[in-house]
Amino acid sequence: MTTFAIVDLETTGNAASKGDRIIEIGIVLLSEDGEVLQEFSSLVYPERDIPPFISSLTGIQEEDVLDAPLFSEVVDDIYQLMKNSYIVAHNIEFDLGFLNEEFKRCGYPALHNAFIDTVELSRIMLPMAPSFKLGQLSEQLGMGHDRPHRALSDAQATTDLFSFLFARLAQLPERTLHYLLMIEPKLKSELRPFIQVAIEERRYQSKKDEPYDLWHGIPVKGVKRPATSTYKKLPPFEEWIHEVYDSEKGLSNLFDDYESREGQKEMSVSIYRALTEENHALIEAGTGTGKSVAYLLAASYVALQKGRRLLVTTHTTALQKQLLEEEIPRIEKLFHRPIQAVLYKGRGHYISLVHFAYELEHSSQDNYDIALTKAMILVWLTETTTGDVDEIQLPSNGRQFWHKVSSEQSTKTVHLHVGEASFYDWARKKAEKADLIISNHALFSLDIMSEEERLPVYDHVIIDEAHHLEAVASRYFGVQFNYRELQRQLSQLTELYQRKVYNGLGLPEDFFKEISKCQKIVDVAKEELNQWSRYMFQHLKRRQRRDKSSKSDLGRLQQSFQDDLSDPFFRTSKDMCDRFLSSLRQLMHGMERMHNHLALTSKLVDDSSVAVLLSRVEGQVSFCRQVIERLDRYFTIDAESSAKWLEVEGEGASNAVYLFSEPLDVADRLNKQLFQKKKSVILTSATLSTNQSFEYVKRAIGLSGSPRLKEKVIASPYAFDEQVRVMVPDDFPDIRKHPEEYIHAISEAIYSMAYVTKGRMLVLFTSYEMLRKTYALLREFIDPEEFMIFAQGVSSGSRDRLKKNFQAFDQAILLGTSSFWEGVDIPGDDLSCLMMVRLPFQPPDQPLQSMQDRKLKEEGKNPFMERSLPHAILRFKQGFGRLIRSSTDRGVVFICDQRIMEARYGKYFLSSIPKVPVSYKSTRDLIVEMEEWM
Q1: Per-residue confidence (pLDDT) for residue 418, from 0 to 100
Q2: Where's the Helicase ATP-binding domain (predicted)?
Q3: For residue 642, what are the β-bridge partners?
Q4: How confident is residue 230, by pLDDT bands cut at 50, 70 and 90?
Q5: Which residues contact 141 (CB under 8 A, 6 or more apart)?
Q6: N- or C-end of the chain: fewer Cβ atoms within 10 A?
Q7: What is residue 788's predicted lDDT score, i.e. its pLDDT?
Q8: What does the alpha-carbon distance between residue 612 and residue 600 come to, in Å, rounded to a whole number?
Q9: How far apart are the first and last CA of the chain?
Q10: For the chain, what are the domain ranges?
Q11: Nearest to 662 by CA among 682, 683, 684, 647
């Protein structure tokens, strides 16, 4: 009989090889029919100290293990329990590594049993799970987990998870199981016998009611098409909107905590009028207005009643998710029919089933990450209705594989018999029939600047988080290059030049000579790119040592590129780029010859592989053409109208180089390609005005002087004067004269305030360098047992990961720069204090900023008043908005920059936020005041 020994350990650290030891072990012995046969649990004396962090995590203190047995005293019980079983653990390499180290120490042979890793199995069976940590999986699946980070409780939770995953395996379609069997030898877990049993059981079950369709031999979740029917009309808008906001059948019936907000209704009415009268609108809606519901009500009414498709574009995926999963399903109940709303993304987000089927048939050379990625995608296809990669948590190298199977690989000129089997086509068709299309600023900007249509046709658009529009449009009207990405794409090219890929297709010997030539050209191109990137990297590093280059907010070294052939650096860079592009041109011609051979073969051979390979060659020719066009453009763009610069990772690989160019002004382009072409564009955000005026944002995005523009500012309903205190210390050192003392003062203030607020602090920096120095200083004198400190760009993880880590600890401090000034919601008690280290003026040495300033001076304008100040005020408002995210939040905004009180322009910052009490005193007095108020 097969048994499973499900084990979990608590240890003094992560590395058995460095002397870390077991402090607790828990084992559950499970039969193959799911019966718990035996449980074992014991504390273990580790013969070394338990670190404070481990005690904090597990609750196991030194005194708890003083009378516990040595591992050698319980080793025989453990060994006998496990030696004839499959070993199962959540991250098997960790637990089995520690156990075998202890067995060896006690004179027992290492266990080499068959094993199953429930992390790996979870990734395959639950590919859409947001996290694969044991506690979060248990919570997500509604399983009890009483004592996380205690060995027996974790082993019991792993047992429940293991049973669930095996049940899920048994429910998979037979064809999916067959594909998993092909992939299984490359996985860590030894799943073959269990997959074979599942196949046998599925073989004799009825397939009649299975909710799957078969496309290219792959089971995919069947999608029911909504039936079309007629719906009765809604009452006139004025009558309907009154009922929505003011009657018991309206919003109050949909939201448990609904509060009537006059500003929200006013916003709906303003947007409806702008859409129906075909005007543009700028609407600033303060925090708590409920702007997404306000504009969705107006947009949905217009779409359903007038039959107009509307586009809603946002900057963040979090807001897109909120609109689709929370807001639209709720307000839909106020209409007499469903709202057809779809999330629409670029081609690269959607899987191509024909390309994935091709990759499944060519799995023999896969490494572990690719095998795991294929297994995850196979299971995901039985669950997804969108085919969107953002639903699935791919492993580190899985993204590279995704590029091979995304819809970007399918070209218009190569017929792949895709038809109904393309998720991208399905998304496009759904969008063309939709009432509302939800998209993002990046795809929206690409659509308005590109000759190729990236979105279905629309004439009315609502731009939420509109304060990002200028920056995103500027990025897409410019050029960006990333050395690593270029190298990745060149490496992917080489897969097309392997002879074995084309075996059995009856291609002539000339074709194989061609692929051999192409491989040599790619090797030359990669070397040319390496030399060029290394040259730029070393130049910038030398310059940094000599005269301190500026740094981006991510800490990269920067240098402006001037279009000047007399500059040796520019001239040499251009020459080296030309050599690289010459190789790409040769490669493009070689692939065109490959394409001709394949096109001829596709007419003679009935093999779907030929069409797949033909489309990939065509896609790579297109890639080479784009690189050539964009790099040619980069080195010939008019210096008067754009800023060009390069960045390198200061501590990174010796050729990790990034090239950027952006137009100095996108106003004219946006005016011509957006505002003049679309019937109605609504821009909304909590931060669009400066000093009660929209003049800055109108100039920036091309709306100055527009006769069709309506403007409105809607105040926040929150009682900021009761919820917020602004505090400014008057005793900080002068940062220009004493920068190091200033950092010491910041660090001391953070430490003192953290005691008052019990952590729960977000500290916003305008300089990555200052953030890094402050973090290093805080780490010197703050005990991790007192406060956990997380820092953007220093602590590992994305912005969202840092935010989650910050919220997971009771007493934590989060240091952020750039992206943390906006778009981060930390509501409730998780955040009580927001510190702004400096007013958020952009550093004047940033390439784009310095070029924009120079241009404004040449036009006889004041760069500070025209651009720097209003831009800083908008950032300040965004930073201020991080603190109060609900009507019950309370907190302190601590601004370490005395310019807000002493400079002539300081009043503009304070007048841009709601009226709140402001204290200007010594740091000591402010902390006393804070303690009393909190």
Answers
A1: 46
A2: 250-518
A3: 663
A4: low
A5: 160, 161, 164
A6: N
A7: 83
A8: 14
A9: 63
A10: 3-171, 479-663, 720-933
A11: 647
Q: Report yes or no: 115 and 87 within 8 Å, Cβ to Cβ.
A: yes
pLDDT at residue 783 greater than cutoff 80: no
Please give the pLDDT value at position 420.
47
Burial label, 671 (beta-carbon count in 10 A; 0-12, 13-18, 19+) = middle
User: Which of 39, 45, 52, 44 minimizes the C-alpha distance to 13?
Assistant: 52
Among the residue ranges 399-408, 435-444, 564-573, 722-731, the one predicted with the least confidence is 564-573
The structure tokens 């004047």 sit at: 844
List pLDDT tens digits, range 608-639. Answer: 788 889 989 998 999 999 999 999 888 886 66
Supply 104's token pair.
Answer: 């060896």
Backbone phi, psi, residue 210, to 5°:
-65, 135
- What phi and psi values does residue 811 have, to the nearest 5 degrees? -120, 95
Dihedral sign for Cα 267, 269, 272, 273, please. Answer: negative
Amino acid identity, residue 267?
Answer: M
- Beta strand 680-685 pairing with 280-285: parallel
812-817 and 788-791 strand pairing: parallel
Q: What is the mean pLDDT of the chain?
A: 88
- Separation in Å, CA 238 to CA 289, 309, 328: 20, 21, 21
Alpha-carbon distance of 505 to 499, in angstroms, equals 11
Taking 3-state DSSP, the helix, strand and coil percentages for the chain, each rounded to the nearest 5, stand at 50, 15, 35
**Helices of type H across 455-503:** 469-477, 483-493
- Record the tokens describing residue 519, joined without a space: 């491989």
pLDDT of residue 701: 94
Architecture of domain 3-171: 2-Layer Sandwich (3.30)
CB 907 within 8 A of CB 915: no
The string of pLDDT tens digits covering residues 340-397 is: 999 999 888 999 998 999 999 887 788 999 999 999 999 999 999 999 999 998 987 8
What value does the mean pLDDT take over residues 210-220?
Answer: 87
DSSP label at residue 786 = T
Same fold, 3-171 and 720-933: no
- CB neighbour burial string for 450-482, b if at least 16 within 10 angstroms, e if fewer: eeeebbbebebbbbbbbbbbbebbbbbbbbebe
pLDDT at 208 over 90: no
Report helix, strand or coil for 574. helix
Assign 573 to helix, strand or coil: helix
Please state, in angstroms and as integers, the Cα–Cα distance from residue 709 to each residue in 298, 310, 694, 712, 844, following that order: 18, 18, 11, 10, 33
Q: How far apart, in whole angstroms, are the C-alpha atoms of residue 131 and residue 526?
A: 37
Residue 173 token pair: 């379609």
Binding residues for ATP: 285-292
Q: In the structure encoding, which two tokens stand for residue 465, read together? A: 């988080």
Handedness of CA 496, 498, 504, 507 (dihedral sign): positive
- Helix ranges, 635-694 (H): 667-670
Distance CA 871, CA 893 (A): 20
Contacts of 240 (CB under 8 A, 6+ apart): 234, 301
Distances (CA, A) of 660 to 261, 478, 663, 768, 793: 44, 7, 10, 20, 21
Residue 473: per-residue pLDDT? 93
The DSSP symbol for 1 reads -
Identify the pLDDT of residue 824.
64
Residue range 706-718: average pLDDT? 92
The Cβ of residue 135 has, within 10 Å, a number of other Cβ atoms equal to: 13
Q: What is the pLDDT of residue 484?
A: 87
pLDDT of the residue at 267? 96
Residue ranges of the annotated binding site are: 285-292
Quote the DSSP letter at residue 350: B
Tell me the residue length of the chain: 934
Residue 120 has a pLDDT of 96
Contacts of residue 95, defined as CB under 8 A and 6 or more positions apart, other chains included, come to: 7, 8, 9, 89
352 HSE (CA, 13 A, CB side): 24
pLDDT of residue 825: 65
What are phi and psi for residue 916, nearest 5 degrees?
-135, 155
How many angstroms separate the CA atoms of 927 and 282, rounded? 40
The structure tokens listed for 707 are 């006769």
